[in-house]
Structure formats: C-alpha cells, structure tokens
Amino acid sequence: MITLKNIRKTYGTLDAVYNVNLSVEKGGIYGIIGRSGAGKSTLLRLMSLLEKPDSGEIHYGTKRVDTLDGRGLLIERRKMGMIFQNFNLFASRDVTGNIAYPLEIAGFSKKFIKERVEALLELVNITDKRHSRLRDLSGGQKQRVAIARALASEPDILFCDEATSALDPQTTREVLALIKELHKKLLLTVVMVTHQMEVIRAICGHVAVMDAGKIAEEGAVTTVFASPQSDAAKEMLYGEHHVPS
Q1: DSSP three-state, residue 163
Q2: What's the predicted TM-score (pTM) here?
Q3: Is the Cβ–Cβ distance between 165 and 85 less than 8 Å?
Q4: In 10 A of CB 39, how many CB atoms?
Q5: Of the CATH numbers 2.60.120.590, 3.30.300.130, 3.40.390.10, 3.40.50.300, which one belongs to the domain with range 1-79+156-168+188-245?
Q6: pLDDT above 80: residue 127
Q7: pLDDT over 90 percentage in the chain
C-alpha cells in the first residue's frame, strides 16, 4: 500500500499540492484525474520519490520513504517503473537498447540483459521490432517500448503520467488493455495520472479528483462517476457549462 499523509509541495507562492491524504491499495489500479494545473503530475512525482514533499509523510507499506537518501532511495526507486506521455526514449538507441538501458545502469551482465530484454519484448508483443529505430515506430509501439523499459527491473509499482494522452483512441484502448493485462500477470500496483475520463472508466478501480492542489473527491470509480459530489468531479464528467444543480 502507498500512503500519503498531509503531503504539501510549494513552488514559490504556489501550493502545487496542499494537505493531501490518500491510500493506494496494493495490487490495485488507482487513477488521479484533474484539469491542467490541478497538481496531479506533481503529486505523482512525490509519490514516485522523484521529488520530496515540503511536509507530510509518504509510506510504502509500513516503511516511510520520503526521508530516504542515497542508496536507500535508489533501492526504493528500483522497485517502481514510470511511463510518460512523451515516451522519454533515446533516439540514438534502437528498441533493444532502450529497454536494456536501466539494466545496464544497474550493472547486470550482458547475458542477463539479453535474456531479460527478449522476455520483455515478448511480454509487450513487439519481438519483431527488437532492432527498429524509434523513427520507424508508431506511437503505440513507442509506448510499448517505454512500458517494457519501465518493467525491466521487475518493479512492484507502475506509475503512468498521462501515458495515453499522445495516442489515438484505438491505440489508447490497446495500451490500456496491455497495462491491465500486465497488472494482473505481474501483480503490479498501478497509479495513473490522466485528464481523460475514459481512461479512468476503462481501467481504474479507485480515483482521486484533484483541484487546485487538493483532493476534491476520492472513492471507487463506480461511486464517483455515478454520483459526483464535488464541483471538480462534476466538471470533469459533464463539462464546465453543464454541471447539474
């Protein structure tokens, strides 16, 4: 379980994340949704230990992790994978090279890396693209490479920051189906940040709606979508000018 207690992050005079409390169940798929500037990507960076909160606590299970530095922080980061909207792949490397990169940095043997990369290529169904350059791949194929790379170190948690925003609807459905399959097969905990309601509907069990750095509403997706209580949730569901009274 990931637990956040009274998390706050300020940039200058802006409270990007303010007094956030939430819990992500181990093995679940948790969505964080909000409009641009709501603070959802900042919250994800805090949850994934890419940034430290100004105050509050972050726990993975019973272990507090926001205070970690050095080797302890590195060990925790290796337990998680991250995928992004813009893929964050290396244009100078082919598909195999991109997937192998985190394993090379971690110092694994060439034999292990080769075997692991082959297994990952099969896992995300792009074995025929192993030597392709990025310029020759579609957006969906690039995201599959990014997913394979994120899973290279066998993480427990997969963080997704607007992972489908750059994809067309059909490719979005395919990538979400893959993430759902991997979640089940690998027993992953998945945290998804998105502004797309259809992504939350398709894959998430629980959702937090963010507004101005705060959690406006949180709960089971079926409950929040059936009967939204906050203005932020109603705007996401019905549109700014169509909020039921």
Answers
A1: coil
A2: 0.90
A3: yes
A4: 23
A5: 3.40.50.300
A6: yes
A7: 77
